[in-house]
Specification:
The structure holds 2 protein chains of 2 kinds. Chain A is α+β, with helices and mostly antiparallel strands. Helix content of chain A is 33%, strand content 24%. In chain A, strands 8, 18, 19, 20, 21, 22, 23, 24, 25 and 26 form a 10-stranded mixed beta sheet that branches. In chain A, strands 1-2-5-4-3-6 form a 6-stranded antiparallel beta barrel. The longest helix of chain A has 25 residues. Chain B is an alpha/beta fold. In chain B, strands 9, 13, 14, 15, 16, 19, 20, 21, 22 and 23 form a 10-stranded mixed beta sheet that branches. In chain B, strands 1-7-4-5-6-3-2 form a 7-stranded antiparallel beta sheet, with no helix packed on it. A two-stranded antiparallel ribbon of chain B has the order 8-10. In chain B, strand 21 and strand 22 form a beta hairpin. In chain B, helix 2 packs parallel to helix 3 and helix 4 packs across helix 5. At the A-B interface, strand 1, helix 1, helix 4 and helix 6 of A face strand 5, strand 17, helix 6 and helix 7 of B. Strand 1 of chain A pairs antiparallel with strand 5 of chain B, so a sheet runs across the interface.
């Protein structure tokens, strides 16, 4: 492979003079004076020189250091054993890294992402004599609750005939499970493991479908008001302290999908710790296993090298695409895409590219679009469906949504869940502001939402109007005072507040209220709707306020009672008493 | 012995460029002028050109000064001999004492492996009720004090330093006025804690590059003490000066600024320091309390804004008190009523809710509305709350503070008005 020498270095960008040829985005290793090999990626080629971004601390790099080019793009390993893992942005397993290097990360140490020793119970499904091509299924192994399918490598070129299949039994990911003979007569040994370049979307499906199935998160304001589709995308921008983290953690616990990939990209390490220490002990609400069984954590926190932060988002989505290939529904939580964009900005600055707004590179928008477009609801070649959904958080500077990353993201996502300080300061959690948030999916998912309620889309739209109306009245009232507001308007305001506090707000720390099934959401929304429609006979404003005060308390207790339990029924009948009264 | 270079090609700002071979990124260089020596650090390489950031500033540096590369990065002394000592931003003692004979360790070391982190469950007592009761400081937490010039943030920091349960206190002063430096020194000496304090002080008149080294030295030393089982509290003041130094350097390196002149990597730079806060399983820990003065009292300014995304909450110091509303300790849920008395959580919430009601009543008065009996009760309660708990001079252990909370509640309210659970009222409500 190619060779080169370091000619310049600044921060994590190194300029290399090379001989022969290099590929854009090829992986290269710099041999530092202390003997460590530092992984890096070619990001620009100019004449006989290229710029590489180094995924490690660049201390001690000298002019003249040798650089080895690998000829390969940055890849991830795919195969059984990915679930429950905690990887860094380059797919190094962090727990194993800690066995190798101790408490602190050490540069230049790379460990196989997939365990080479572990044995998997392989059941072959392909037959000798069959003709196969890239992406065909050879067999499966059990991984957690899934049948993890073993594929012919996605980059396998042409067709080949199976000449030998392994028998059912235990194999490692490196053992040959099938021998195939290509049309050119060449023999290939296929294993359970393969690699795929992270920056190239995996598109081995029949067709992409319009996302029309809801992805239930258990969070009422999302599922009912601003839903996300399976295979869809959403962004959660919010200033610090507005509850992004808690919301993300909620979604990662309760979302109704098969696989969750949490990409902690440039955020606090402490937040990941909660996930990785608690998930192994929390029960998966859908399968009874632990939450960790369906989770992969990609952890490239804020103090880890910034170039690897850029890669971490792609690593996450590539693993997601792999599991989608098995007909599973995958959700990727990227926290936070702003840190990823900042990594792009840092590198762009070092490359001395002409900056765009706030010094972000001019290609920021297209990179964001490329990333979110890797989500999708697809029909696979064997007729099954699978999906990758992406929910990304954005950390806008100063909480100002006008900044380039938020705007670039809004242009490409299907739902916008905007968190505001106004709501978080008023302790209205989740602080998703119903006045600014939107989702494009209700129309698209109309047919599946009919199962929830024949008129679900319409009644929700009515409720949204109510919220806006209530906010208008509130604004007027702030000027003219309660005295200047008619009792009719005042009741609309109180009803909107009621809807907000018992339905849009949700207590993430209450064992019952934290998560609502779609069935329960529809059930309790109908009750809210009845109250919104009811003529309230109030003597005066104080009386009206008092009525809603009591109703709200009643409803909150109802929300906190287990579905269809004794308590639940008791509170429900009390609310019904009110409605009759 | 490495070659001595006697020709500097370029001098701009705090940066000097010269030709040298076999030099590594981050390596230290010694620049010798007649009668003056200063260290510098290699920050970029381009062919045979080496760019050195000069710690002591480039004032008076001549193109024919001697430059020698030392073959190692910036180091700091580490060991028990550092206790009670004061150093400048280059790690040189400024307390008149001798250079300590200790091991040298590199600064700016690698990141702690996230897989080795644990959920912190211990509280650090400060004996300041607004912290202990309302926004508890948790081991391994990183918390900034958001304030503005003129507020007593250094006094608060010094008090936490004196009273906090920590084995070792490392103070990193950045752009510190001479008066403030003297204040810290005197306070620690007079209160008798100096023997467990290490100070790295960059004074306002010192060269700007040294300001950048202070947090790294403080944290490198803290990290080693934590690894050896010590509970370390790192106090940093003022991170705004640190960020401004970053800005100055990056502009003179001709980097493209991102927001209000600050470099695009401000977030990563701040995070690299704050993320050193850690609780090492089975060993010591590092907790960081840092001052960030907000330019123009604007929390959306890039410095407090980036800080807020990194740290685990913030204290707002306004009008000489810790504001209970904007302030937040994200980790307090890990310890409140778990590591502390069981009434802690409910008392904390009730007190704050009632105080918030009191503020509303005050607004009502300010707007000229009629005052009800309930408003009067709240007003009297608010006054007591401010005098007996919020005042920064109040100094008591958390148990006493909780008892005082109950006493204040009992003085102004009936139990039912507070909404506190019956079982807590039965146990804790003071008898008449």
């Amino acid at each position: 492979m190619g060779m080169g020498r370091v000619v310049a270095a600044y921060g994590n960008m190194v300029t290399v003079a090379f001989e022969g040829s290099v590929r854009q985005n090829e992986v290269a290793y710099i041999l530092a004076a202390d003997g460590s090999r530092l992984k890096s990626e070619v990001i620009r080629v100019r004449g006989e020189r290229c710029n590489v971004q180094v995924f490690e601390d660049t201390r001690d790099i000298q002019v003249g250091d040798q650089v080895d080019f690998t000829g390969n793009l940055l890849v991830v390993e795919l195969g059984p054993g990915l679930l429950t893992q905690i990887y860094d942005g380059l797919q190094n397993p962090l727990p194993k890294l800690s066995q190798a290097t101790g408490l602190f990360l050490k540069r230049g140490i790379y460990i196989d992402p997939l365990d080479r020793e572990a044995k998997w119970d392989f059941t072959p499904t392909a037959k000798v004599g069959a003709w196969i091509e890239a992406g065909d299924i050879l067999g499966w192994v059990p991984e957690g609750k899934f049948q993890h399918q073993i594929f012919v490598p996605f980059d396998f070129i042409g067709r080949a005939e199976i000449v030998k299949m392994a028998e059912k039994g235990f194999y490692t990911v490196a053992d040959t499970v099938a021998e195939v003979k290509g049309e050119d007569g060449k023999l290939h040994n296929l294993t359970m493991m393969q690699v795929w370049p992270i920056k190239i979307p995996l598109k081995l499906y029949q067709e992409r479908l319009l996302p029309d199935q809801p992805l239930v998160t258990g969070c009422r304001v999302i599922d009912s008001f601003f839903p996300v589709a399976k295979g869809g995308t959403a962004c959660i921008p919010g200033p610090f302290g507005s509850g992004k983290t808690v919301l993300q953690q909620q979604i990662s616990r309760y979302a109704e999908v098969d696989v969750i990939i949490v990409a902690a990209c440039g955020e606090r390490a402490g937040e990941v710790v909660e996930t990785l220490r608690e998930f192994p002990h929390l029960e998966d609400p859908y399968t009874g296993g632990t939450l960790m069984d369906r989770t992969i954590i990609i952890c490239n926190t804020s103090s880890m090298p910034v170039a690897a932060r850029e890669a971490s988002i792609y690593t996450a989505v590539t693993l997601g695409e792999y599991y989608r290939q098995m007909g599973l529904n995958v959700l990727i939580l990227a926290d936070s895409t702003s840190r990823w964009a900042q990594a792009l900005r840092e590198m762009s600055g070092r490359l001395e590219e002409i900056p765009g707004e706030e010094a972000f590179p001019a290609y920021l928008q297209s990179r964001i679009a490329e990333f979110y477009e890797r989500a999708g609801f697809v029909r696979l070649k064997d007729g099954r469906n699978g999906s990758v959904s992406v929910i990304g958080t954005v950390s806008p500077a100063g909480g100002n949504f006008e900044e380039p990353v938020t705007q670039g993201t809004l242009a490409v996502v299907g739902a916008f869940l905007g968190l505001t300080w106004a709501r978080s300061n008023a302790r209205r959690f989740p602080a998703i502001d119903p006045l600014i948030s939107w989702s494009k999916y209700p129309e698209q998912m109309k047919e599946s939402l009919v199962k929830v309620d024949p008129n679900w889309v319409e009644i929700i739209r009515e409720a949204q109007k109510f919220v806006h109306q209530g906010s208008e009245i509130k604004k007027r009232m702030d000027v003219v005072g309660e005295e200047g507001t008619s009792i009719g308007d005042f009741l609309i305001y109180l009803k909107a507040e009621f809807l907000d506090s018992v339905y849009l707000q949700q207590n993430a720390f209450d064992a019952v209220d934290a998560y609502n099934t779609m069935e329960r959401q529809a059930y309790s929304f109908h009750m809210v709707e009845k109250i919104l429609k009811k003529d309230i006979a109030a003597k005066n404003k104080d009386d009206a306020r008092d009525i809603f005060f009591r109703l709200t308390a009643l409803f909150k207790n109802w929300n906190a009672s287990a579905w269809q339990g004794e308590e639940f029924k008791r509170f429900e009948s009390q609310i019904n008493d009110f409605l009759r009264g | 012995m490495r070659e001595i270079i006697t020709k500097i090609d370029e001098i701009t700002g705090n940066i000097a460029t010269l030709k040298a071979a076999g030099v590594g990124l981050g390596e230290l260089a010694l620049l010798q002028s007649p009668g003056r020596e200063t260290l510098g650090q290699v920050i970029s390489l381009n062919g045979e050109n080496v760019t050195v950031q000069v710690f002591g500033g480039t004032k008076g540096i001549s193109t024919n000064d001697k430059v020698r590369f030392l073959g190692h990065p910036m180091m700091v002394k580490y060991g028990n001999a550092l206790l009670g000592r004061i150093f400048n931003g280059s790690g040189v003692p400024i307390d008149g004492g001798p250079e300590p004979v200790e091991e040298e360790i590199p600064i700016g070391g690698p990141s702690f492996n996230p897989a080795n982190r644990v959920i912190p469950k211990q509280m650090i007592r400060t004996n300041i009720p607004m912290i202990d009761v309302f926004n508890s400081l948790v081991v391994s937490q990183k918390l900034p004090i958001f304030s503005i010039p003129g507020e007593p943030y250094n006094q608060l920091l010094a008090r936490v330093g004196m009273q906090a349960e920590a084995d070792i206190i490392v103070l990193g002063g950045m752009g510190l006025k001479f008066d403030d430096y003297t204040f810290f020194k005197r306070t620690f000496e007079e209160s008798g804690v100096m023997n467990r304090v290490i100070m790295f002080i960059h004074q306002a008149s010192d060269p700007v590059v040294e300001c950048l080294l202070v947090p790294d030295m403080a944290l490198a030393v803290a990290e080693r003490f934590a690894e050896s089982g010590k509970r370390v509290l790192v106090l940093l003041t003022d991170m705004t000066n640190f960020s401004d130094s970053l800005k100055e350097i990056s502009i003179s390196m001709e980097q493209i600024p991102s927001n209000r002149g600050y470099p695009g990597d401000l977030y990563s730079q701040l995070a690299a320091r704050y993320e050193k806060a850690v609780d090492i399983e089975g060993s010591g820990d590092i907790t960081i309390l840092a001052v960030t003065t907000m330019p123009g009292d604007d929390v959306t300014h890039p410095i407090p804004d980036n800080t807020g995304y990194i740290t685990e909450g913030q204290f707002y110091l306004r009008h000489g008190v810790i504001d209970p509303f904007g302030s937040l300790s994200r980790l307090k849920q890990n310890v409140v009523s778990k590591a502390t008395r069981r009434d802690h959580n409910d008392v904390m919430n009730t007190m704050i809710r009632l105080y918030s009601d009191c503020r509303e009543s005050r607004n009502k008065i300010a707007m000229g509305f009629k005052v009800s009996k309930w408003d009067e009760t709240l007003l009297a309660y608010g006054q007591d709350f401010e005098r007996e708990l919020m005042d920064l001079n109040v100094n008591m252990p958390i148990e006493v503070a909780l008892d005082r909370c109950w006493a204040i509640l009992a003085q102004h309210f009936e139990p039912v008005q507070t909404g506190l659970k019956d079982e807590l009222v039965k146990e804790f409500w003071p008898a008449q």
